[in-house]
């Protein structure tokens, strides 16, 4: 039974091990050793809970998250939320552009600017996959996930990390939300928000609510709906457990593979060079294998696989939100081309602005662009999480599939804590961009905080009022469920 529902979870899990995750997890390990292991664990548990709710919403209501939100909001708010989600997808795509371009540069010695433009050609991959069918896409993605997992299991086992410290790091502490020390341009709190933003991504909630409907279910049979919710959640949790393992390995790799302080360049370039340089490695066996060049090559191959995986899921999500929010449909290749070309712009600007700087400064700038793109994802997350929590806790909408009290309170706790930490960190984040004086940057940050708070309030009010209409008009699943139960009794 589980096999029939296996697949969508893999597509969702891809978003939890993209190049953005690589940047935040490896940098977190290098900068703060094993402290942020608990952040990866917490963000993975948050992901499991929220993805379960998203999949359940899709199966029960037969609407994806974008459609469900748009049904309850006015046109103006629908457009605002659509634009915000599009920006979140582009922020994800920036990390994919950088990761894929660097992988091409490392594997084939292609200069960075041409490599950035070559990443646009992944639209051809999408055209091919669109012809082979959805189930085969799931198989391709699963194979690439396996490649990534095996590469890092191999490299981490060779490095002989301090497993006791790694396991102690899984226990949450106040250190993960401290604003000091600042190492390599990030604090523990910034690293935490980057990991959460790279892990619990808003576009994955939209995607899961849509692809959970790809399995045909007889909605006139309540037991079949229960089975679909149960096995889809199980598939998702298994795949997200693998994603947690990959992210934990990435952080352990950042903390353990290299000699302390040996890697001055913490970008993907620096990591690749370090894996090829026996003097920088910490374990004799790792040193021996590094001399063959296989460690660095495998690293670059896994990086390329990670970027291509995320390309597939990002494009599918873009289609979902465009159709759901503004009822506009585009061919997958056209959608991909537009998104990728827009995402290429900040990467090219970053490369051009640092052209006269040292090589290490150029690499650092690209790394910080990836880090900050993931922090932006954490800001966009509440605008999808809060509506999801409100809708899946509506008895009229969900019937017996309404959130259990424990999941309901945990979901709200996650959303509120994440929102608070993001807003709390915003002033220091703006100051770190150095686009203005400290005082001006702080004022702008507080203005943005007010705008974000107002938008969240607007969103929650409209979703709540929309949910009341569902209850009044008996248009949710609860009414349908009662009919199904009555028919079953007859």
TrEMBL record:
It is a multi-pass membrane protein. One of its GO terms (cellular component) is plasma membrane. InterPro entries: NRAMP_fam. This is Metal ion transporter, metal ion (Mn2+/Fe2+) transporter (Nramp) family. The chain crosses the membrane at residues 34-55, 76-104, 110-130, 137-157, 238-258, 337-355, 375-394, 406-424, 444-465. NCBIfam families: nramp, Nramp_1, PRK00701.1. It is found in: Membrane. One of its GO terms (biological process) is iron ion transmembrane transport. Its main location: membrane. Keywords: Membrane, Transmembrane, Transmembrane helix, Transport. One of its GO terms (molecular function) is manganese ion transmembrane transporter activity.
């Amino acid at each position: 039974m589980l096999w029939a529902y296996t697949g969508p979870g893999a597509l969702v899990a891809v978003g939890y091990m993209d190049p953005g995750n690589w940047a935040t997890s490896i940098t977190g390990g290098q900068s703060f050793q094993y402290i942020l292991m608990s952040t990866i664990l917490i963000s993975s548990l948050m992901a499991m809970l929220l993805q379960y709710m998203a999949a359940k919403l899709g199966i029960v209501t037969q609407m994806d998250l974008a459609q469900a939100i748009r049904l309850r909001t006015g046109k103006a708010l629908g457009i605002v939320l659509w634009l915000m989600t599009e920006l979140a997808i582009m922020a994800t795509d920036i990390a994919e552009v950088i990761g894929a371009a660097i992988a091409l540069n490392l594997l084939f010695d292609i200069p960075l600017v041409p490599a950035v433009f070559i990443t646009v050609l992944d639209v051809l991959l999408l055209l091919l996959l669109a012809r082979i069918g959805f189930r085969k896409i799931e198989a391709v993605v699963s194979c690439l996930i396996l490649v990534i997992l095996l590469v890092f299991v191999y490299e981490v086992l060779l490095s002989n990390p301090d497993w006791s410290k790694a396991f102690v790091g899984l226990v949450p502490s106040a250190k993960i939300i401290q604003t000091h020390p600042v190492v390599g341009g990030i604090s523990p709190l910034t690293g935490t928000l980057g990991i959460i933003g790279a892990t619990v991504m808003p576009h994955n909630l939209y995607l899961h609510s849509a692809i959970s409907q790809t399995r045909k279910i007889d909605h006139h049979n309540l037991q079949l709906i229960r089975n679909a919710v149960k096995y889809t959640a199980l598939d998702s949790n298994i795949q997200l457990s693998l994603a947690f393992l990959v992210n934990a390995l990435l952080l352990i790799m950042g903390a353990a593979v290299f000699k302390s302080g040996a890697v001055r360049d913490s970008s993907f370039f620096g990591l690749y060079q370090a894996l090829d340089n026996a003097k920088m490695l910490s374990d004799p066996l790792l040193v021996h294998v590094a001399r063959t060049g296989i460690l660095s090559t495998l690293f670059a191959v896994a990086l390329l696989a990670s970027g291509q995986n995320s390309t597939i899921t990002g494009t599918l999500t873009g289609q979902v939100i465009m159709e759901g929010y503004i009822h506009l449909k585009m061919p997958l290749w056209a959608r991909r081309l537009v998104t990728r070309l827009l995402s290429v712009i900040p990467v090219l600007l970053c490369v051009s602005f640092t052209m006269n700087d040292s090589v290490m400064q150029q690499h650092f700038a690209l790394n910080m662009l990836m880090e900050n793109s993931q922090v932006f994802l954490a800001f966009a997350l509440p605008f999808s999480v809060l509506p999801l929590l409100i809708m899946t806790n509506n008895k009229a909408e969900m019937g017996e599939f309404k959130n259990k009290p424990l999941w309901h309170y945990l979901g709200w706790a996650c959303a509120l804590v994440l929102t608070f930490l993001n807003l709390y960190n915003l002033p220091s984040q703006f100051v770190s961009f150095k686009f203005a004086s400290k005082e001006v940057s702080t004022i702008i940050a507080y203005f943005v905080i007010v705008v974000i708070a107002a938008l969240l309030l607007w969103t929650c009010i409209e979703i709540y009022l929309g949910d009341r209409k569902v209850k009044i008009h008996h248009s949710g699943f609860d009414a349908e469920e009662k009919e199904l139960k009555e028919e079953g009794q007859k």
